[in-house]
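Lab notebook, bench 4. We co-purified these components, and the gel suggests they stay together. Before we commit to crystallization screens, I want a quick structural picture of the whole thing.
Request: model the full complex, all chains together.
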Amino acid sequence: MNIVIIGGVASGAKAAAKVKRLLPHASVKIFTDDTHVSYSSCGLPYYIQGNFNDYTSLLVRSPEEFKASGIDVFLQSKVEKIFPEQKNVLVRNFETVELVPYDKLIIATGASPVRPKIKGIDDFENIFTVRKIEDGINIREKMLKSKNAVIIGGGYIGIEMLEAFSKNNVYTHLFERSSQIMPTLDFEMSEVAKKRLNSIENKNFELHTDSMATEFIGKDGVLTGVITSDGKQYECDLAIVCAGVKPNTELAKEAGIEIGETGAIKVNKLMRTSVEDIFACGDCAEKTHIVSGKKVWIPLGSTANKEGRCAAMNVAGVYCEFEGILGSMVTRCLNTTIAMTGLTEKEAFEIGFKPVSVVVSKYDKVAYMPDTGEITLKVVADKITGLLLGAQAVGSIGADKRVNTVTSGLIGHLTVEEFSNNDLTYSPAYSPTIDPLLNAMQILCNETARSC
Amino acid sequence: MNIVIIGGVASGAKAAAKVKRLLPHASVKIFTDDTHVSYSSCGLPYYIQGNFNDYTSLLVRSPEEFKASGIDVFLQSKVEKIFPEQKNVLVRNFETVELVPYDKLIIATGASPVRPKIKGIDDFENIFTVRKIEDGINIREKMLKSKNAVIIGGGYIGIEMLEAFSKNNVYTHLFERSSQIMPTLDFEMSEVAKKRLNSIENKNFELHTDSMATEFIGKDGVLTGVITSDGKQYECDLAIVCAGVKPNTELAKEAGIEIGETGAIKVNKLMRTSVEDIFACGDCAEKTHIVSGKKVWIPLGSTANKEGRCAAMNVAGVYCEFEGILGSMVTRCLNTTIAMTGLTEKEAFEIGFKPVSVVVSKYDKVAYMPDTGEITLKVVADKITGLLLGAQAVGSIGADKRVNTVTSGLIGHLTVEEFSNNDLTYSPAYSPTIDPLLNAMQILCNETARSC
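Here is the predicted assembly.
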């Protein structure tokens, strides 16, 4: 059996390893136009920051290690076309092209950074996106010589890069065109994060919301600044563009594979596409939201990994259903942890729930303990049914703990009332007697139509 | 309406505050034989350790604060008898006795340390239990002058005291008569904790399991050592006895209130006892285990607080059901976090489940991140139904996070298969791509009879 995998970062690499374990005698080939395979893209901001100094730490498995377990990796080998009728793919490696046959094909082409149409974006050196190993190497090298940087986009990559630059004493302006950093959060929670960041003493960065870069300026190909929508000009010698990503679906589209309503490749629970013997997983594939039941496209490394595993199992004939996602995420910027799961109040409303919500700010431990921090939690439920819909947390380390506790409640479709009976661990060194999460749920319970 | 509450540490204090908010015109009186009311007993080891220096930080609400909100607190006032027929209680304050009438009575008499029959236990100064504010003050004062201490009992209070003594450079021998420290854990998990503690460089303590103190020795009332079951003798000038607690039920028993099979006061979901208009909550009351449905007695501060709230609501005529507990707990000893929820494998087996389990040891973050620690997780499920039964974690900070994530799954009666679909938050700074918990669940899934 010939198994061909297109793309090898997270889901592709995982799928290859898993399918080879299940079918030791199958031929498994990974084709990728990248120069590296099987790496932790999410770790790039921490490599850039200097949390570790050897970029090869980001590599999970080298092509040699794949080879040793019987998997062939073809780097810088771009699949240019899929021929579903003939069951083969056209691969280009520089000037060489080749037709490679498959019995089962896994598309794991991932996503690419959106490159917004900002004047001058292609005219200067030192304007980067953060996606590949080379991006990390180049940005780190440049950052160490940089004085002033700009970051375009205030999502999680933007604020992780902000931490990296801040820790390396590069003065940074971050521009986010929407009215909030971390636009996936509800506005009020984003404001909590912004306030925490802005309260840092002697901070070496500025957060600009409702602010768009309209032009990069420089001289002789060298970046010197950026002009924003309000006509102001900011000096910089380094720019990071993290204005979102889009799924890499061209190859699938051309092959006649159905694209979902979200713009990503449509798959069923078995990670099968609309075309026989072709699977898709990871950032290029559409997902189902467990709380809303709706199709969504939320590309995250943890999901990619699980989908890769599930696709591999079905390729190997071992039944596996991937139930979907909750959109759970966590990120950190300096003193602030930001985490969420499930639906925001805004999303819940748009989908047609009647959301009610509660926001509480509490200490993360009993107040008399040392190193006590503050956590602000927002919990959301449906007013009519009491169904728990989601949670967001901003604050000290431990904010993510509360959000992870909610994930299992969402998987179990618990009501707020049921969740309020939760028996969380307690010790003064770990939480207050009544954890902020339970406190929020008890209050939320009173907002729903169910008795609590 | 006259509401009388017996006991005022955790559940009694909570009940008083809650019932007064719900019934502002009721008379609410707390009687306690203690010298303090409304305090964090769980915080005593941290006060002793010196994490904070003012013991009044442990006091949640002073009698004056209660007074200001219309609640009368009577300290050093022991309720000697309940007369359910006449609906009053006999209170003794030193030489004064008084009959106090009630319409509703809440028994929150808590638990008392077991004082094992060790020869000499009452003959010397500086042999303490850890329960009340005075205990904390006295132990701390003595510890600061101490060179060698012994701790009798290796449960969570024992190991928290070990941390306190170790951090204060008091060389300590801990004796636990069972074959494991933290006897509520499965043996193998207890061994992981023991190994971590024993691996501390230049540690200033020794852990002795299968070891019992048989005699305290000393001179002129001054403690100088302890003799153990194997005939050895250990020098010490300070001893902590934390060999368990027992529910304070005498008062209830004498009043003809039904005692449950566990030896604690029997209550229904509304925290009502078998006698009209008498409620019980906190450490003196029996609990229902949510996973097994069995009656248990696991006295913990977080439960006491919730039960107090629920009892108060029902006293005030606001319907509240307390569903029960999971036995969730967390504690810390030096570099080691220990947490659990639900049933251990041993308990599950004894109850009649067919438990299967998986133990995994993994990094708590992606390996390339700084300050990466290790977490060992044990997850337990029923082989036949796949029902998730419990989890235990030992390791770095973050072990408790994994256990809290399981609590919601237990509340929702999830199967391992359902839990394996959980979408936990991921970022390299917070967890590996596949969290140790999901990893453990995926392996456990294969051990059950359900397809995964």
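The domain at 2-37+60-111+246-315 of chain A is CATH 3.50.50.60 (FAD/NAD(P)-binding domain). Worth comparing against the SEC data before the next meeting. Residues 301-315 of chain A form the longest helix (15 residues).
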